[in-house]
Design brief:
10 helices, Rna Polymerase Sigma Factor, Chain: A, 2 strands
């Protein structure tokens, strides 16, 4: 967990040209970048590509943060990272009306109205309805296509647990958890 006061102090030093402070701030938030990139699977892409896009978003946050807006650096960084990831996924496939454009989100299959509403300034009403319908369809597809173990592993995976932690909670080996994650990815990529 990061310390907001220390983050702001590092940011202030970085904004004055201290490259060591900038590198330290980026190092502190690498875990957040991985956590933000984890839910997305880019058909035909690599997870490292998404992580690199997330790092670009983090660097943008470091360089454009404004403490005068009364928003914590952590909040601003997370928004910049997520925005960059979504843009990368959309750009990769170029289908205008497909949510997250040919990506497969490993997010919870339940409709999260708060998330959709927070992004409503980015979408028109038609897109919001299409996104809601697509989310509902994904939810039923997950229930139909994934085994009980796979759904359980997916839930823990999305919560950010390591393979070791997931294995401990499910009573399976780490290899079994890895196999389940690979099956989930294959099954979901076949659907899109």
């Amino acid at each position: 967990m990061t310390d907001p006061a220390a983050d702001e102090q590092l940011w202030r030093a970085a904004s004055l040209g201290d490259t060591d402070a900038e590198e330290e701030l980026i190092k502190r938030y690498q875990i957040m970048v991985r956590a933000c990139a984890r839910p997305y699977f880019l058909a035909g892409g690599d997870s490292e590509d998404l992580i690199q896009e997330g790092m670009v978003g983090l660097l943008s946050a470091v360089r454009h943060f404004d403490p005068g807006r009364d928003v914590a650096f952590k909040t601003y960084a997370e928004r910049c990272i997520t925005s960059r990831l979504v843009t990368a996924v959309r750009t990769a496939s170029r289908f205008k009306h497909r949510p997250l454009n040919d990506s497969i989100s490993f997010e919870s299959p339940q409709f999260d109205e708060r998330q959709i509403m927070s992004e409503s300034h980015l979408r028109d009403p038609e897109e919001l309805v299409i996104t809601k319908e697509s989310t509902d369809e994904l939810s039923s597809t997950y229930a139909r296509e994934l085994s009980k173990l796979e759904r359980e592993v997916l839930r823990y995976f999305l919560d950010g647990l390591s393979y070791r932690d997931i294995a401990a909670r499910t009573g399976r080996s780490e290899k079994s958890v890895d196999n389940a994650v690979q099956r989930i990815r294959r099954k979901l990529s076949r659907l899109h």
